[in-house]
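Hi support team,

I'm opening this ticket because the web form for multi-chain structure prediction keeps timing out on my end. I have pasted the exact lines I submitted so you can reproduce it. The total is 989 residues across two entries, so I didn't expect it to be a heavy job. Is there a limit I'm missing, or should I split the entries? Thanks in advance, R.K.
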Amino acid sequence: MSNSVLPTTAVEISRAVRAGELSARDVLEVHLSAIDAREGEINAFNLVLADEARAAADAVDRVVAGGGDPGLLAGVPLAVKDNLCTRGIPTTCSSRILEGWRPPYDATVVSRVAAAGAISVGKTNLDEFAMGSSTENSAFGPTRNPRDTSRVPGGSSGGSAAAVAAGFAPISLGSDTGGSIRQPAALCGVVGVKPTYGLVSRYGLIAFASSLDQVGPFSTTVADSALLLEAIAGHDPLDSTSIPDAETGAARSLLSVLDDGVAGLRVGLVTELMGEGIAPDVAARVRQAAEALAAAGAEVGEVSIPALSYGLSAYYLIAPAEASSNLARYDGVRYGMRVDADTTAAMNTATRTAGFGPEVKRRIMLGTYALSAGYYDAYYGKALRVRTLICRDFAAAYQNFDVLLTPTSPTTAFRFGEKTADPLSMYLNDICTIPTNLAGHPAMSLPFGAGADGMPVGVQLMAPALGEATMFRAAAVLEAAAPDLSEALQ
Amino acid sequence: MSLNLTHEPIEGEHFLITSDLTGDVWEIVVGLEVHCELATVTKLFCGCPNMFGDEPNTNVCPVCLGLPGSLPVLNHQVVELAMRLGRALHCSVEPSVFARKNYFYPDMPKDYQVSQFDRPINVDGWLDLPDGTRVGIERAHIEEDTGKNTHAGGSGRIHGADYSLVDYNRAGVPLVEIVGRPHIRHPEQAKVYIDELRAILLATEASDAKMEEGSLRVDANVSVRRVGDPALGRRCEIKNLNSLRSLGRAIEYEARRQVDLLESGETIKQETRHWDEGAGRTRPGRSKEEAEDYRYFQEPDLVPLVPGADWIAAIDAALPVLPAQRRVDLAAASGVGITETGVVITVQRDLDALALAAIAAGGDGRRVLTHVEHNLSGEGAVDLEPSLLAQLVQLELAGQLTATQAKTVLADMVVTGRTPEVIAAELGFEAMDTSELEGIVDGIIAASPDEWEGYCSGDDKRRGKLQGFFVGAVMKATKGQADGKAVNAILDARRNAAS
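Hello R.K., no limit was hit. The queue was backed up. Here is the completed structure from your submission:
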């Protein structure tokens, strides 16, 4: 079967495989060939699982041949961020400290996509422990942006974004703590969704900042993200913060609303995220997106959310504070790397010194400080109050608007090394994406034309908690109206 | 250390230390922190068995091993038992949150302990001791246990060990930490507090409360102050108390150490100290350059715990009658004082139901309790038919059995379940006619004129000695069937008649 006739989206692939028109194995081989051809250049994966994938694809084909239905994602190749646990398969978080560790269990999302018939092709690269915005913090080397390999793919889910952008898999799983799905989706020119906190199970997602982390999909189309999100969403008794199914029905019915349009939908353009710090070409594309929504019948207005300006500061206290605790367990005692020393405490220190990279160490130090006696109130405590304020301001904005529209990232993809010397300039990349993590709301990025440099621009849609359906309706309209990615903004 | 100090207990529950140097009188102030493992089927946050004594590292899973990506799920039964205990301690059940207590130790899989910090589930209760003292309970909160380290070589502690082994079977076992207020004033009272708490834990079936298996662990906060001083002294926390005996000894030692320091013009350093049972002293814990900072913050992997009013009401409705009330009931039924050992020990041994039934069946209250206190301690006691105990007491009261005989018969009853009459008849225990006994006593007096002379005219000491001679001789002559009290009465009557 030749590449030209092969469907490229998950929706089409699964339909054809379930109908017996296409074999999962043929679909897989095409994608493995794509990986063979470009993975050396891109480095999207920490591990490619060709043999396991072939066995899984053959199993799907046997189910179809036997008259069975392998599920919603039948035969769809899928890449998995390497901070999601996979039973018996190394899971590293792109950190030396976990190198070689094989989890004895699958993350809930991994089980769910497998149960839906998806074919996992590999574990994707990330900034170490999901801390970063460029994938340059991986212990195993950076991932390159498939659209321009001199540029970063964004991060921390850079590998999952690049895998989809490069055609290694039509869909992938990432995790988003402060923008780690949406920002790389924007920089790579693909769709990426951070669901409502609690809609998707975190069980088996190796924690960075537990109150902010959420698993979500990457894809080339809005419909594919809807499909993958439907497959992974839903209550998980193993995650105490997962929302009961009775409350999430609408947020899990996404494919069915994609054609509903935006007539009468109130869309707010967030003024705080359209001015200083946002590149003019990015802002121009966002305005163009607003016009497209208005043209489709939406009521577009401007909205001010004052507390957003404190989001970045609050995030860089809360996330490191939780991380300092979440990453304490990498102590050399039970699994992963151990550097021996004379005493247990010295072994802990030697292991952590050798095993963690500089950004992880920086955040552990920040978080430890923010939680320390005498500083808690001034730092962590105050950040929690800001978080409450952001939730309140969002609630006020959603009195008047159904969805909000902003840039995803202040700029298009930057070049390697451009921001590594100054952590603060790297942190500013997340300024548009962080507020929804603090609020627990859903948000997604989708490509909307190219910037002045010809690189993709991502626009972000945000919605109130469990407002996924509305958000996807707007996304479908924007996708249809999006300028060609190959044409740079003049 | 020179301890020029003496002590004497005054007013029962106060343990006072008087300085020979200054004559100042010091009192002990103790607050106890008790960790007890809840008797749940599974662990606090996962489905692993909560089982003591299994092969190391067999009751473990990704959650209790804290493997990357694992998440806790709160065990419903833990909340049930914790609330039951809280209500039994007269606490108010509050909406609570879990927090992480962060510190590195190899027995702690996540290098933080999930506990409750500023919002515990149970607050502000009390516990009444048999002596009438009310000890305040500040809080009783839920937390997870750690694994267990075994250090090989060196001193048996982690420092200097050749290697260490860790058993994570205990990691994630549910604990309740019961923080008592500093209302205890005597080492013995501390032991009684633990006894009482243990009785409540058993009655509520919250814990098996075995100190020797570590399912009940006690830390003591000890300070001293001059009698009359309203301010509390600076305290030390004493750890490694593995028995009630250690608890009492450690408190007494520590109090004397503190008084000695203060009398010498030194100050007490607030610190954790370890009890060394062999040396009979407390020693400072690992020296720390700075105070431990646990960086508590709300556990983001768990949601706030807010038990509904109906759940709390259901727990209250199902609470068993607690030891303090059982003592009230038993004292009322038996006519024995509530603080007397017969009442206290009968309830402590969980034999009050037997005693109450025996009393209801016509047994004399005081004699029933005397038997329970002194003659019933074995396992079979729980199966003893109360009406048989009542019959035994009636025989005794009617003078048909002596106290000694009754004890012998009771021991047989516990084993065989036969009636006291049958056993007494088999053993040849028959009521001795008073005139028959008088005849025997008179015969012995006649045969021992020198002893009788000494008995009648000697001082108390000599008389006491000779009384033993005569009673012993009567017992020998009657093969132990005579009632000692009756013999004494006859001897008394004969002496009075002779003088």
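A quick check on our side: Residues 1-12 of chain B have pLDDT under 50 and may be disordered. Let us know if the file doesn't open in your viewer.
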